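Morning - S-adenosylmethionine inputs below, output right after.
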Amino acid sequence: MPGPDAAPPGVDPTKPAAARVYDYILGGSQNFEVDRLTVEKTRQGLPELEDIAWSNRGFHQRAARWLVAEAGIRQFLDIGSGLPTQRNTHEVVQEVNPDAQVVYVDIDPMVKAHAADLLHGSPHTTFITGDVREPDGILKNVQTRALLDFDQPIGLFMTGLLMLVDDDFDPRGLVTRYLDALVPGSYLALSHPTDDKQSPEVANRFRGVLGKGGNFNLRSRAYIENLFDGLELVPPYSGADPHITFAGLWGAEDPTEADSDGSRWMLAGLARKP
Ligand SMILES: C[S@@+](CC[C@H](N)C(=O)[O-])C[C@H]1O[C@@H](n2cnc3c(N)ncnc32)[C@H](O)[C@@H]1O
């Protein structure tokens, strides 16, 4: 496991970072002592922490597989991708279509350092450092444009990301900016933590433990639904009407079984741009 000496340039190993904290929760090794302590403390107030993270990651993976296998999407823009871990987007989609192209974007320089090892110069996958709040920096990036053809549909991932973007930066407006750059037939896969269905006491406990590391926004179902406004939602599981759903239920073979306490902290949806 890397210690502070292994911090790549631009990475402060004394402050917890979302990418490394999430990596540790998912069982990864690309994190520092400060990240591990943050998780251990958080777990004391939020015992369902792992369940929340895995529900979200599971949605991301099932949505990626659905997009390539069912919708025939062969290009992906994964913003807030996180540290390379098991079953990354390119691994999931290239299993179905080896020519599928993936551009990963994350604000954390640590992600870029580790992505370089993982990607091994793959011609179909690249990683750029970028900030979701600055769409031009991502959409006009030379590497993005080299790999993705914006005249063809693209699968846009914004999973477990926008809770880290405050209202001042207008998350709904940002989603619109990205979707405006994509042709009809493109898709948005998005998940977001919610306090829907939680008592105010429990929601405050969540805010208390996760808010300590900086900005962390829990948002209502209506707010998250609005992020999909104007899009055609895909039914989340067999027999369901099109709607956003708790993350664990999306693509679940047995939605009743998948309806866990952790899953209920995340709402997720996959939708097509008409
Ligand atoms: C909780 S992880 C989610 C990882 C992955 N998308 C998933 O759902 O499994 C959030 C990621 O968003 C990144 N992030 C935070 N703020 C960002 C920003 N403004 N722009 C781009 N990435 C950001 C963090 O560095 C972290 O890797």
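Note: The mean pLDDT is 91.

O.
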